[in-house]
Structures are given as structure tokens and as C-alpha cells.
Specification:
homodimer; alpha+beta; BirA Bifunctional Protein, domain 2; Rossmann fold; Translation Initiation Factor IF3; 3 domains; five-stranded mixed β-sheet; 14 helices; 27 strands; about 30% strand
Chain lengths: ~500, ~500
């Protein structure tokens, strides 16, 4: 085989790192906690960006760009937000290097180039953006402001993991301003819905939509809506959050508007983001012991054509014809005309890279008027007539997309357990893991205590849950609905 | 009028700032030298990005992403490059804030969170990328590497100007690695050609293609190819550069490969970039005293439809029909159905924003089966029959694109002068400005001296120039071709 990776059941964590490396998604860098996103990984991000950007624009949002740096005085203006990020931010203190007199050829920070005010590399942009919105908003006619930005942010994480948690990551952050509380909540929910639709329809990753408990909310938010996915190892992944920020930032930055009745009011806000972390979620939802598995809608290459055993002229003629037919249907294809490696090596390589469909074209098959089509998700192979190959593949890509979603959903269903006691919670977490639905008395203290005892957090209070009288698994106090506990990434 | 701006002949510099502000392209920020790119300005950048990205991909390049930070030890590895950027870079020295004990509610840099090695916020990414390429390149089979990234960079400029020179800016930077010198030079020239084609065919901005003199080369390059445009005030703008880096970075970062003959060789490199500065060039090439003028191919909104005087039902019916017809042709349209402002106000507003074509629909016109079409570039108005309006507009957009290019080319031709003495150079620079073609003896000393005396630099040694014996305007030494002198942004 071309490359081997650790088996999931041996060491899930190492399996993940092996996939990231061997499928060519990312690489380590010389900067602590920062990764290089390699071309194949970045191509997946580009597919995600294109789809999300389309969904944002269809709902009236526009893109803009705000500075990378936040002056310290702005950073600290919204206290909860500042407190939430202060311990993990990169700080620019100087603006010049000079030659080091003691080390010829080396540079040192020029002590004469110290900034009067330090600049924080944005961990998120509410502060710099709301400081700008103050100038942009005078009256109700200036509202709503529906702005998104695609950007890099930095959070000085101590334990990093490619895509899932890195010091620098890429994301989009929406920042909207509204005249009323209702409208702002509505906006946060529209985005919450878009995130869920993107996760399920494009990533083929089922998610539970819900609200965060107070403990788990974004620093500075009055309410955080979240989509939570379940990874194959039974751990949860927070995949996208949309925050109702109330008037917290408007008050911190004095952003007021004149209503149509000429009254001055503070503006209402939302913010929302998804990041390159989604790629981590994509990997851990679908991939297997042979490598990456990608849903067709986000696969940079959807179909690979491999001549067997070599790219001989009559084979390449057919390959080109299939390629043309598929391209006309908007399907992305790669023809592997490399002569150095053998088909078996190539098959393993494309399995590692998660290309959804592989077409093998051999001479004997051609004599029979067929090609061999292999699907990555189930590894089934089928002989398909040359006359119908492009229609077959078009439908197969849809089938794979749907199958991946259904498979992940079936896994999640099997890995979701109603638990009614602390003992049961611990037992389920330690054996099968997954989502545990349990009653909770609604207090932060109880949540903290359960976290301490089990390392599980409340992933969300589901939007759609059956109201059910019950008793908190820790305190026995009354509860009206189950919430989701899980250990999480 | 809705908004007024300074006239070009009164104060060109203020005119530029007025356009940037009143057309809604960018805004100042709380961070010294950093701008906010507003939605309308960012939409132009998105159009530029989409086209450039397509051109890069068509020529075999892929995108990736490398870290924002460069550890100081890597930054200083290629000495010329380090020297070129050391005096203007933002430096991260700490990774945590803490509560300031002397100022309740305020934060301070935590002295215990000092980094062992300072991190430079990338002013360009050669260092971090070539440090990574060392791991990616072993043999000739790994070459060429044709990678681009879309990113933000920071250069601590003292005098900033929106789009033209800002401390943080957005750009793309290509970084390629090749087995031979010839192939690397070829790559740099392919990109040079793409930049020129983009400038002329999409920005409608004529450029002179050429090479930089040694003085003006990118720090660390063996050769720099540049496209130089001429702004309406007679100053030059460097619009895009493509560098042949020789083996300088390969040697600094020890990047070698095994040839097919199993010999170890250093790798050859190029890098190339264009930035949001192009938006400054776009503004200054076409705009006038009524505001921004945009070439149709880069205009976020190509056609605006204004009901006269109000959006009444029969008018909106026609507006919607025209909108549908234009959208079907891939033309972007805005229908202004706002009822608050009068048509005259709207006309001025859309002129300020540089929307190429305006369609006015009035009741009396409708009775006659016509609408009024105004083009932004010449401000001509025409009555056009309802039956042919969408075909008319489709062709008009092409005409405007072509007219803008021809107009700018005619201006440049008129503003290009052969000069044969220092006196003449100074006189031309002080009166009409523009490109001055003059003989130069080829030395850096002479170039420096001319710069000192005239504030003009050698913009480029043109790719296409007539070989002509002559004498250097400063030293009288022999010269074989004229080069372009100009004062520049």
C-alpha cells in the first residue's frame, strides 16, 4: 500500500493526525500552534467558503474588512469579552527591528520603537467593529447593518490540534446591528439555521441545534445558538455559533441611533462565526481506516479516472470523453495520466485523499464496453456501461452525499442515550461516549460540578426537545427538559 | 447635489480622499495607518480577486495558507530581505494580558508572558514559506511548486493613504519553486503577463511592462518585473510585481532537491503579488470631479434602474422586466425603489459610486415606449426603445469598458515625453509630470543622484523598447535604451 495510517480503534487521536498529514491537508509550521494549510486542505476550505458566502449574500449580508489589530483601550471596553480573551492573545508592542550590535547579521527589537499603546492581534473583532459602527450608525435608516468578514484570528491556545484548535485560524465573522431586540434575535436565528443547513446538506454532518447554557456562552453574549455534531469517537464538536449580543457592545462603544420617533436608543447586536475547525469536523465525521472520506459537495476533486494499467491512447480517448461529459455536468474530474506509479498505488492514494468516485478504465473492460466504478464511502465496485457512465456518476455522487449523511445520523442516533443518574452518565461517557440527554436544574453551579465530576459539559439546550418533567441528575431539583451532556473537542 | 467633492485641479490629493470617503470605499480606523474596507470597496476587491484567482488557477497554481507570524530567526535568515523589511514591521512580544492592579477594569501586558522568540507579523511570506518548502521538496518530482495565498500583511508605513499605502493591506502572494533558472524566470514572466492583462483588460488601466533597476528591486530578488501605470496627476503607480528570486531563499533556508541524475541542487524561486493598492489605481485612473468611475468588468453593480419620480407599479413592472433580462445576461443590476429621495439626489449618488450605466424610467417615456439610459464615463444620455434595452445595455457596457481604456491610454500617450537632459527632465516633471523616457548609464549611483535632484525614480526598463544609442542625461555616458523616469506613489 502507498501509505498506512493508525487504525481508529487503536488510537483515534493518532488516526486523526495521520489523516491530516497523509491526505495532505495541513502541516506543522515553525510558529508554535500555527499550522500551514496545504493546497488540498485549502481547496476544501474554498469550497466551504464559496457555499457559505453564497448563503450569507442570499440573506442580504455583504462582506467588508476591518483591521487585524485592536488597540488595548478598545479591547478592554466590553469587559466580559475582554476577560474571555485576555489570557490568550498575541500582543504587538514594537514596530521596528534593528541590527543587533552584539550579533552581526542578526536583528533585535528596537527598544526605541515601542508603541504608545499595545495592539492586540484580533481574537475576534467585536471591539474594533463596534468602535467603527459608532460612526456608521446615526438613525434607524442606517439599520440594519448586515456585515460579514473573512479573516484570520489569533487565540494563544496552549494545546493545539490541526484544524480543531490552532493559535491562528481562518474564519468568517458576521457582525450585525439592529434597531430592535426582536430583529437581532431573529438575525441570530437565521444564521443558526444557515449553519445547520450547511452542516447537514453540504458537510453531510448531522447537528443538534440548540442554545448554550450561561457558562458556555460567548464572552459578551446574552444568548449563544450553537450547532453540535458528534464525532466517531463519541466526543462532541461545537461547529458553529451565532450570538445575540443584546446591547452590550452598543453600550461599551456608545453606539446609539435615532428612532423614527426621534428618540435615542442603543443599537442591538449579533455576531456569528464558523472556522477552519469545520474541516476537523468533516474529517472526523466520515473518514475511515483507509483515509479521508469527503462528501461530494465539498470534494475538490469529485471523480478520478485511472487508466489500467497505463495511459495508453485508446484508454485516454475514453477517459477524455468521460471527463468532457462530467465537466459539462459541473463535476470536477482528475485524469491520472502519471506513468510512474501502478494502479494499486494510485487507488490507495485516492482513497487516502477521499475522492468520492474512482473510475478505472482497463483494456479488457473497454472490449466489453464497460468501465469499473468504485465509490469511496462503501468501497463497492460496479461495472458500468460506457453509454451511461456520466449519468451513473452524477447520480452516484448524490447517493454518496446522502449515504454519508444517513450513516453519520445512524451513528449519532445509536450514540445518543437518555441518562437518569450521575452514575449512568459517567458509565455511558466512559464506555460508549456520545450525547447524553439528562435533566439539569438550570444552574451554573450544578453544571460546573457535573463538569468537574465527569469532564462533560452541556453542549446545548436543544431547540427541538420534548418538554418532560424530570429531576436534575445531580441535585434532584425539578427540570422541564433534557439537555445534552457530552465530552467535547 | 447629494455630496460634493474637491475638484481635481484644486487639490488632487484631497479629491482622492473625498472619493474614497464619499463613494463609501474605505474608512479610517482606530489603528494607526490601518483602514476599514467598507462593503462597496470590498465588493470591488472581491471582483478583482475572483478574476485574478481564475487566471492563476488556469495557469496551474493552487492556493494554500501559511502562518501570519514569522519567528525572528527565520525572518533574518535571508539578509537582504530582512534588511528591506526590518524597519517597518509589527512585532509580537507577549501572549497574554492580565488585570492591571493599579487601574481596576483595565488590562495590561502580562510581563510573565513574554515570548522566548519574538514573532514578526508577516510583511511578506518568503521566509515562513521557504522554511516550509524545505520539508516539501526532496526530488525533481516535487517540482515545480506553484502556490499562491490570499492574505493580509503588515508594513509599518509612516505616511499612509487609503488603498495606496496602509500599514495592513490585503494581497495575494505567489511563491513558486522550480528545478531550473530558466523555468523560474519563465514563471515570473507568465505572472508578469497575467498582471498586465488583468490591469488592461479588466481594470481598463494601461500599463508599461518592464524590469526594475537594481535599486528598485524587491529585497532579496535577482530581478523584479513590474507593471507601471500613470495616474491622472502625472504620477506613476507600481501596480504589480513579479520577482525572480534566484536561489537566494533556497540557500538561506537550505532547500535542495535531487535532480533526475541524482545530483543535489538548490531550488530556484519566484514570488509575486498584487494588493488592495490596485483599488487606488483604479480610482485614480478613471474617476472625475463627480466621483468614482468604474470599468464595467469590476463594478459591483453594473446597472442601476431609477424610477422617475417614484416607484409606481407600472414603472416597477418595466424595471423588473429589464432587471430579469439583464440578469439573464449575467449583468448585475440594482433597482432603486427607495421613496425618500428624489431622482436628482439618486443620480448624483450613483455618479459618486461610479455605476457604469443608469436607466431612468419615467411615465411619459413609457408612453413613448422608451427609457433613458445614461453612461457614467461620458455622461451621455440616450432614449432607447423598450424592445432593445437589454441588448443596448449589454453592448454599452463593452463600449464603456473599451472607452475607459482608450481614454486612459490617450492620456498616458500625451503624458509621455522623451527627455534628453536633466533640465528638461526637471521641467517636464514640474509642469506636466508623466512618464519621462530618458537615457541612463545603468549605474545605481546615477539613479540615486537623479532621484536626489528630481524626486523621480526609474519606474522600469521597458520590456518593449526601441534600442537606441544615446547618452545618460546625468553623466553623458553611453546608453543603449531609454528608461522610464517618473515621480511615483
Amino acid at each position: 500500500m502507498a501509505k498506512e495510517i493508525t487504525l481508529r480503534e487503536e488510537n483515534y487521536s493518532q488516526w486523526y493526525l495521520d489523516i491530516v498529514k497523509k491526505a495532505g491537508l495541513s502541516d506543522n509550521s515553525a510558529v508554535r500552534g500555527c499550522m500551514v494549510i496545504k493546497p488540498y486542505g485549502y481547496a476544501i476550505w474554498e469550497k466551504m467558503q464559496a457555499q457559505l458566502d453564497k448563503m450569507f449574500k442570499e440573506t442580504g449580508h455583504v462582506n467588508a474588512y476591518f483591521p487585524l489589530f485592536v488597540p488595548k483601550s478598545l479591547f478592554e471596553a466590553e469587559e466580559k469579552n475582554a476577560e474571555g480573551f485576555a489570557k490568550e492573545c498575541a500582543i504587538v508592542t514594537h514596530y521596528r527591528l534593528k541590527n543587533d550590535p552584539d550579533n552581526p547579521g542578526k536583528l533585535m527589537v528596537d527598544p526605541n520603537a515601542k508603541l504608545e499603546e499595545e495592539l492586540i492581534v484580533r481574537p475576534t473583532s467585536e471591539a474594533i467593529i463596534w468602535n467603527t459602527y459608532r460612526d456608521w450608525i446615526q438613525s434607524y435608516r442606517d439599520l440594519p447593518l448586515l456585515i460579514n468578514q473573512w479573516a484570520n484570528v489569533v487565540r494563544w491556545e496552549m494545546r493545539t490540534r490541526p484544524f480543531l484548535r490552532t493559535a491562528e485560524f481562518l474564519w468568517q465573522e458576521g457582525h450585525t446591528a439592529h434597531a430592535t431586540k426582536e430583529e437581532a434575535i431573529q438575525e441570530a436565528k437565521i444564521i443558526h439555521e444557515i449553519y445547520a443547513r450547511f452542516a447537514e446538506d453540504f458537510m453531510a454532518m448531522p447537528v443538534i441545534k440548540g442554545s448554550k447554557s450561561e457558562n458556555e456562552r460567548f464572552a459578551g453574549a446574552d444568548d449563544t445558538f450553537t450547532i453540535e455534531a458528534l464525532m466517531q469517537d463519541g466526543k462532541a464538536l461545537q461547529a458553529g455559533t451565532s450570538h445575540f449580543l443584546g446591547q452590550n457592545f452598543a453600550k461599551a462603544f456608545e453606539v446609539k441611533y435615532l428612532t423614527s420617533e426621534n428618540k435615542e436608543e442603543y443599537v442591538w447586536a449579533t455576531s456569528w462565526g464558523v472556522s477552519t475547525r469545520l474541516i476537523g469536523g468533516l474529517i472526523m465525521t466520515h473518514s475511515d481506516d483507509e483515509g479521508l472520506v469527503l462528501p461530494p459537495k465539498l470534494a475538490p476533486i469529485q471523480v478520478v479516472i485511472v487508466p489500467i494499467p497505463k495511459p495508453e491512447p485508446e484508454i485516454m480517448l475514453v477517459a477524455d470523453r468521460i471527463n468532457d461529459e462530467l465537466k459539462a455536468k459541473g463535476i470536477s474530474v482528475k485524469i491520472d495520466s502519471d506513468e510512474k506509479n501502478r494502479p494499486g498505488f494510485k487507488f490507495a492514494e485516492y482513497e487516502m485523499k477521499g475522492i468520492p468516485v474512482r473510475v478505472g478504465i482497463g483494456k479488457r473492460d473497454l472490449e466489453n464496453g464497460v468501465v469499473e466504478i468504485a465509490r469511496r464511502d462503501t468501497k463497492e465496485k460496479t461495472q458500468v456501461s460506457l453509454d451511461t457512465v456520466s449519468q451513473y456518476i452524477e447520480k452516484l455522487l448524490d447517493d454518496i452525499q446522502e449515504n454519508l449523511f444517513q450513516r453519520a445520523l445512524a451513528y449519532r442516533t445509536a450514540a445518543t442515550t437518555n441518562v437518569d443518574s450521575m452514575e449512568q452518565l459517567l458509565e455511558v461517557l466512559d464506555t460508549k461516549g456520545g450525547f447524553c440527554l439528562a435533566h439539569w436544574d438550570g444552574t451554573s453551579e450544578t453544571e460546573e460540578k457535573i463538569k468537574e465530576l465527569t469532564k462533560a459539559t452541556i453542549r446545548c439546550i436543544p431547540d427541538e426537545s420534548i418538554l418532560e418533567e424530570g429531576k436534575c441528575i445531580l441535585t434532584g431539583k425539578p427540570s422541564k427538559q433534557r439537555v445534552i451532556f457530552a465530552r467535547a473537542y
